[in-house]
Amino acid sequence: PEGFNILTCIGGYGHGIMQLTNLGIELAYDPGVMVSYSGRLVRHGVQVAEGDRIVWAWFMRDSVHNYA
Predict the structure, then answer these.
(1) What is the pTM of this model?
(2) 22 by DSSP, 3-state: which?
(3) Could you give the C-alpha distances from 42 to 13, 17, 31, 52, in angstroms and in order?
């Protein structure tokens, strides 16, 4: 799927919230969650009160793989 981002979050933190700001949606963003959205169309933000986390991001665009 062209233009989609996939985020996977792990870590030792409590409850997190992902906000899809221009859609007015809030999602639970707890450890182990995987979220896919159109990075071209949707702005996002994440709130985590305390703890540590790592996010793996996959960018599903052919242009990411062009090095020249």
Answers:
(1) 0.70
(2) coil
(3) 25, 16, 22, 25
Tens digit of each residue's pLDDT, the chain (68 residues): 567 889 999 999 888 899 999 999 999 989 999 998 888 788 889 888 788 888 898 887 666 566 65
CA dist 14 and 39 (Å) reads 25
What are the two backbone dihedrals, phi and then psi, of residue 64, each rounded to the nearest 5 degrees? -65, -30
Q: Which residues pair with 3 in a beta bridge?
A: none
Interatomic CA distance for residues 27 and 16, integer angstroms: 9
Q: Give residue 40's identity as a one-letter amino acid code.
A: R
Give the contacts of 48 (CB within 8 A, at least 6 positions apart).
13, 14, 16, 29
Stretch (H or E) spanning 25 = strand 25-28
Q: How many CA atoms lie within 13 A of 19 on its CB side?
A: 7
